[in-house]
Write a structure and sequence with these properties.
single chain, mainly alpha, Globin-like, 2 domains
Amino acid sequence: MNLTTQFKRASSALVIGAILSLAAPAHAKDDQLFKDLGGKPGIDKIVSDLMPIILADARINKFFDKIDMKKLGVLLSEQVCELAGGPCVYTGRDMVLAHDEMGVRSAHFNALAENLQVAMEMNKVPASASNKLVAMLAPMHKAMVRNPE
């Protein structure tokens, strides 16, 4: 094979590789957390177990009095799935808009994170995966909390 042919094949491979990388969904980069959470069925189960924990938690249950918990569960599953590198797309509102004027404090945010960790423990999610997900959710604190104290 001559040098020109090698160059043409290498160029074609680069172009095809570039096209494939652009066409690949963003979650394809790293879906290990998604897998560690049990994929979509595992995430759905975690969220399903989380809902009654939230409603039983006197620290935060007042925020959910008038909320459609079924719809919230779907949105939380989408959000966790997307964050974890899964094939889902979060279809809910922006976190700032969704939590504006709710009066969420750091203690409330932390209570929800604790509840999520309990739900993950119930589903035997490895501690490393649980910690990674909570760390990924931590930046939402700024969007959700209006009264940091």
